[in-house]
């Protein structure tokens, strides 16, 4: 399991693209897989843009940037990555979608390939139950957005994850320049158990008229040293993702009503206002 050289990343959204870029910058070959070709094109543009920025900032030579780009492959077919020695699922936060993908991953990759998931909140043991016989190779490897910048990988073992899988995950995370920190397999783990109720509370504060979004965000930035205010961060993460994580915690933590998503958050999602990725959310990002 050690000396990983080829990573398959399944899902070319924000997180998958970031994981792929981070892998290539660490010298790993990375195949990015998505059923939607336009997502792969977006990922490729993101990679080209970020690598050019690193060259412009003299953090990489143009040869190093070209080498990183040459390590990245983009495909709609999982079978194109059958030689991968590690797999990270970074698809949409839906338990049924992820379970189906795990079955495809088990069948596509070699028998000792670790099947990691970048789920932000779903139970690792539950996902592992979809791949009978391979449960010991399933583990949570939770990255943070933007992946090339954020240092953490939250590492979550399922009930049957082997020690060898856990040790290899710690080793790979460090090899990608990250700091792995363990958390137990409860809905939302640590990061989202703490972060999402805070974001949700910011929506309640807005909804109750405590302050407008700009003031809420300024207060938390200036008074609590957050790099982004909670509502700006919600747009950055994706309002649909925030709502979905709250629902996973509501369902997974005894239907405690404190985890129900705020109605304003739900309304924005239902209106298609998902944050940065859709051009508007709490704030409007459309160019004049
Ligand atoms: N990809 C790669 N690099 C990026 C990037 C991206 N998408 N966005 C920013 N960067 C880099 C910039 O190039 C810059 O690099 P440099 O220091 O080498 O020049 C550096 O990050 C800082 O960027 P900027 O100067 O453009 O802007 P800021 O200083 O305002 O930082 C930020 C931007 C890093 C996004 C900062 O605002 C921040 O840390 N925000 C909070 C992010 C956060 O909380 N993330 C966690 C979300 S929760 C999550 O992901 C879990 C999930 O389960 C929900």
Question: Could you outline the blueprint of secondary structure elements for this entry?
Answer:
Layout: E1 6-10, H1 14-25, E2 29-33, H2 37-56, H3 62-70, E3 72-75, E4 86-89, H4 95-108, E5 114-117, H5 124-128, E6 138-142, E7 152-157, H6 163-175, E8 179-183, H7 191-207, H8 213-224, H9 230-237, H10 239-252, H11 263-270
Parallel strand pairs: 1-2, 1-4, 2-3, 4-5, 5-6, 7-8
Antiparallel strand pairs: 6-7
Helix pairs in contact: 1-2, 2-3, 7-9, 7-10, 10-11
The structure holds 3-hydroxybutanoyl-coenzyme A.
Write a structural description.
- With 288 residues, this protein is α/β, with parallel strands linked by helices.
- Helix content is 46%, strand content 13%.
- The chain has helices spanning 14-25, 37-56, 62-70, 95-108, 124-128, 163-175, 191-207, 213-224, 230-237, 239-252, 263-270; strands spanning 6-10, 29-33, 72-75, 86-89, 114-117, 138-142, 152-157, 179-183.
- It has an 8-stranded mixed β-sheet with strand order 3-2-1-4-5-6-7-8, sandwiched between helices.
- The structure holds 3-hydroxybutanoyl-coenzyme A.
- 3-hydroxybutanoyl-coenzyme A is lined by residues 50, 53, 57, 120, 144-146, 148-150, 191-192, 195, 227-228, 233, 237, 241.
